[in-house]
Amino acid sequence: MKAEPSISHKTGSYKADLLERLRNPEYATGYLMAVLEEHDETAFQLALRDVAEAQHLPLPATPLQWAEATNLLRKLGLQLRLDLAQAA
Length: 88
Description:
Layout: H1 7-22, H2 25-36, H3 41-54, H4 66-75
Helix pairs in contact: 1-3, 2-3
């Protein structure tokens, strides 16, 4: 009987699969846009780090400051854009 993969193995596999998908610029853009819609700065920082890791871009160990984040987006070939929010 085959043993079930450990949690760390499953997590590692998920991370590897995510990084593979994030190598695609269109997927990475959609991923970041979806996280931005959550209005969670920490989640966006983590998502941006995932995309940078997938693209093999170096990052500081500390949380990104605004200038670092926008510079990283530029290196990824991305830009921030504002749209009017839909009325509720």
